[in-house]
# Entry
Amino acid sequence: MPETVNIGGVEILRTAALAPMASVADRAYRLMCREYGAAYVVSEMVSAKGICYSDRKTAALCTVTDEERPMAVQLFGSEPDFMAEAVKIVLEYRPDIIDINMGCPVPKVVNTGAGSALMRDIPLAARITEAAVKAAGDVPVTIKIRSGWDKEHICAVEMAKALEASGAAAVAVHGRTRDQFYSGTADRQVIADVVNAVSIPVIGNGDITDADSCMDMYRRTGCALAMIGRGSYGAPFIFREIAARLAGEDYSPPGVEERMRIMLRHISLMLELSDKPEHLAIHEARKHAAWYMNGYYGSAKFRGRCYQLSSYAEAEELAGEFITLQRARGAE
Ligand SMILES: Cc1cc2nc3c(=O)[nH]c(=O)nc-3n(C[C@H](O)[C@H](O)[C@H](O)COP(=O)(O)O)c2cc1C
# Structure
């Protein structure tokens, strides 16, 4: 039996989880990653206030389908009362876990006092957590943080301890400061420090791009679960690679034809799940198509063409041409 981690009563395989990613990890993306073995997925972040004012788009973001479970719905906000109210509304969607975003670096979120701004106000972060935990009842509440605000203010350990005391069932740590946004490399030592400081499970996140970097995350931090964001772009099969490594099984990455098949399936799922007509829904699929072509000969030109796609039929045609080019180059 593979190892599991228990987050507030929710059993999760100790392979790797998919990180929340707004405008990327939508339902189609999460389903693709689950299919390839992601142990746990998190929704795109949803505004606590937006839910309280019952924004329709926000409600769509909270929907949890059984195929995605175990799944968390992620909220962001800076006011304990709104957070508690939002948690109660989200519970109607029956998430397995409710996660709160205290790491988002973007000014639009930080300027409202939410996301990583909370790393500068740990007492408020604790009150938000307490309010969410109380409102959530039996459903575990987890928090996602960064290493700190900037390199002079690394506070992940202090923050994680305060969150644990406030009832958080787990904490996910992205080993970058707010100041870094997505640049530089993620610090694994700070994740290890948090692991040593708290007794709740710690989810380690940042710069996992393959099985080797995932094993490095487990080895160097002792985290309970690894979490992958950008490393899954155009590569939902990264979860299969990691599961195989942990199970000591052989793994060979999909060849170009298989990759293109996966890409087309991903696009068709996006189109199927979208409430927009194909010519508009395809816009959101363009970047995904481009990511599946990364790392191959001539891919820059093809990626440019992905950004022109206006239908599924065109995506099929482009995938065919891409395969022909790679075959001519002798790629598998
Ligand atoms: C496009 C994009 C959107 C993101 N959206 C969210 C979000 O909604 N909530 C959140 O907590 N983190 C969000 N993140 C941060 C990721 O969850 C993750 O912490 C970060 O990308 C580092 O992990 P990685 O190196 O594996 O990508 C986002 C990251 C990216 C690149």
User: Anything to note?
Assistant: The first strand starts at residue 4 and ends at 7. The pocket of flavin mononucleotide is lined by residues 19-24, 44-45, 74, 101, 103-104, 144, 174, 205-208, 228-231 (CB under 6 Å). The two ends are 33 Å apart (CA to CA).
